[in-house]
Structures are given as C-alpha cells and as structure tokens.
Amino acid sequence: MPRSARKKSESGIYHIIIRGINRQTIFEDDEDCTQFIEAFAAI
Asked: InterPro entries under this entry (predicted)?
C-alpha cells in the first residue's frame, strides 16, 4: 500500500537536508552552494 502524500506546510517553511553518498562533500566551494540555492529559489 503506497504512503499518503505529504501535506503542504501552512507556514510555507520547510527543512531540507541533503547529504552525499557516504557523506561525501556536496558543494566543492561557495559558488556551487550559491548556484544550488538560486536554482531552488527559481522553483
């Protein structure tokens, strides 16, 4: 039986966690991190 869809937050605030495989570094430098945040903001 599939699980139910998550409910949308009434406040619009979400906590997002990302982690690399085997806890590898996700962002090599600040520019990588900035590009990721800008891409997320565009959604």
From this structure: Transposase_17_sf
Kind and range of the H or E run holding 38 = helix 30-41
Q: What is the DSSP-derived secondary structure letter of residue 42? A: T
Predicted structure pTM score: 0.50
pLDDT above 90 as % of the chain: 19
Residues 35, 27 contacting (CB under 8 angstroms)? no
Distance in angstroms (rounded) separating the CA atoms of residues 25 and 19: 8
- Say how far residue 24 (Cα) sits from the centre of its chain: 16
